[in-house]
Write a structure and sequence with these properties.
Structural class of chain B: mainly beta
Distance between the termini of chain B: 40 Å
Number of strands of chain B: 10
Strand content of chain B: over 45%
Largest sheet of chain B: 6 strands, mixed
Number of strands of chain A: 11
Radius of gyration of chain B: 13 Å
Helix content of chain A: under 10%
Strand order of the largest sheet of chain B: 2-10-9-4-5-6
Strand content of chain A: over 45%
Shape of chain A: globular
Helix content of chain B: under 10%
Number of helices of chain B: 0
Distance between the termini of chain A: 36 Å
Radius of gyration of chain A: 13 Å
Shape of chain B: globular
Order of helices and strands of chain B: EEEEEEEEEE
Order of helices and strands of chain A: EEEEEEEEEEE
Oligomer: heterodimer
Chain lengths: ~110, ~120
């Protein structure tokens, strides 16, 4: 099973600041990497798929990069509604399984 | 618009089974699949498996093989997830999500509202 390790576990930032979140895979996932945002009591929301493609309706301040084993989600300028937990997720071809990382919480400083 | 509406919360005893439903609307049901994802309290999401609404093909997470069964009913555009031999660590919110039709894509744009399953003696 491919393990995804996210860092930092928690980061404290102010609105307007830049957030940089990391996701490292235990083996290459090529570019099959997605990012989700989750707020309390809600289902996860897809932000980025295939490492760098924004999902429908996602603002341009969210961007994804990376390939292989190292990936980054960047929020260029935090808005109040961006304070949440972020998860990365990978899809492996064989066996065909998905796994999620442990999450990174972006909290208000 | 795409909607996935799940069945209500369940409380089960250890060893029992639970079956959660996910009724889809707003799209052509057989063109897609459904993945099931659960999230234990305070934990990250865990993918449980995928089913094609076109032909019923399934992929289950290895960890749940033998305990989980996913089905669909195209006449009602509904997906089902049954989990057997429930344990306390199966306590979680269970979500359905629209997925690829021929294999899991991992691209979950549309989700159900979640169903809490609590396992307690």
């Amino acid at each position: 099973e491919i393990v995804l390790t996210q860092s930092p576990a928690t980061v404290s930032l102010s609105p307007g600041e830049r957030a940089t979140l990391s996701c490292r895979a235990s083996q290459s996932v090529t570019n099959y990497l997605a990012w989700y945002q989750q707020k309390p009591g809600q289902a996860p929301r897809l932000l980025i798929y295939d490492a760098s493609n924004r999902a429908t309706g996602i603002p341009a301040r969210f961007s994804g990069s990376g390939s292989g084993t190292d990936f980054t989600l960047t929020i260029s300028s935090l808005e109040p509604e961006d304070f949440a937990v972020y998860y990365c997720q990978q899809r492996s071809n064989w066996p065909p399984e998905l796994t999620f990382g442990g999450g990174s919480k972006v909290e208000i400083k | 618009q795409v909607q996935l509406v799940q069945s209500g919360a369940e409380v089960k005893k250890p060893g029992a089974s639970v079956k959660v439903s996910c009724k889809a609307s707003g799209y052509t049901f057989p063109d897609y699949g459904i993945s099931w994802v659960r999230q234990a309290p305070g934990q990250g999401p865990e993918w449980m498996g995928w089913i094609s609404a076109y032909n019923g093909d399934t992929n289950y997470a290895q960890k749940l093989q033998g305990r989980v069964t996913m089905t669909t009913d195209t006449s009602t555009s509904t997906g089902y997830m049954e989990l057997r031999s429930l344990r306390s660590d199966d306590t979680a919110v269970y979500y359905c999500a629209r997925d690829g039709g021929t294999s899991t894509s991992g691209r979950f744009q549309h989700w159900g509202q979640g169903t809490l399953v609590a396992v307690s003696s």
